[in-house]
Design a protein that fits this description.
This protein is an alpha/beta fold. It is built from six helices and nine strands; from the N terminus they run ααββαβαβαββαβββ. The strands form two sheets. A seven-stranded mixed beta sheet has the order 5-4-3-6-7-8-9. A two-stranded antiparallel sheet has the order 1-2.
Amino acid sequence: MQGAAQPNLTDRYTLPRRNMVERLREHYKIRDERVLEAMMRIHRHLFVPEAIESQAYKDNALPIAFDQTISQPFIVARMTELLELDGTEKVLEIGAGSGYQTAILCELARKVFAIERIDGLAREAEQRLRYLGYRNFSLKSGDGTNGWDAYQPYDAMLVAAGGPEIPVPLVRQLKPGGRMIIPVGTDQRSQELIRVTRTEKGYTQENFGPCSFVPLIGEHGWIK
């Protein structure tokens, strides 16, 4: 866990943020206290456009720049919890967006490698994360469906966009026993949340129900 230089925890959004975390705990039954603590520490309103920052702790996704979104707090917590991080992992994130999920992963893992397809978003996310004091990450723009081969194998992967199938390069870059959370579906508007676990002979899949993400664009995703 990295002690990022967040603004003082007591701010005008402290109560909405606490209510968000309690909703995750009581309504959605998120049980990983490390995930909940990270979501209390990180100021989500700093990762959305200033004009809608008052909506940052509501229970829904929000628009960000370049026609992208920041995921609903529940889905961020759920995907992160399903990775079962203990702080020792090297994690690959596909679809960094505004950097909010990246920050959560930085709090919970040893090192995060993040890829964002859109150059402008990647630059803004890196600047925001650096400003907030995070140092245990590397972020680049590119086709996330090809992974980041230079730093593989990874203990865990989180894919924050929905693809038609599980990208083969990502599975290959997982360690045996490593876990990947990815939305998969043949409809660009809806997917199923899948946890992939790498095995010595291939991989296994678990289905954690319906979800909805922006399309995973790339060589091993949807063609733009």
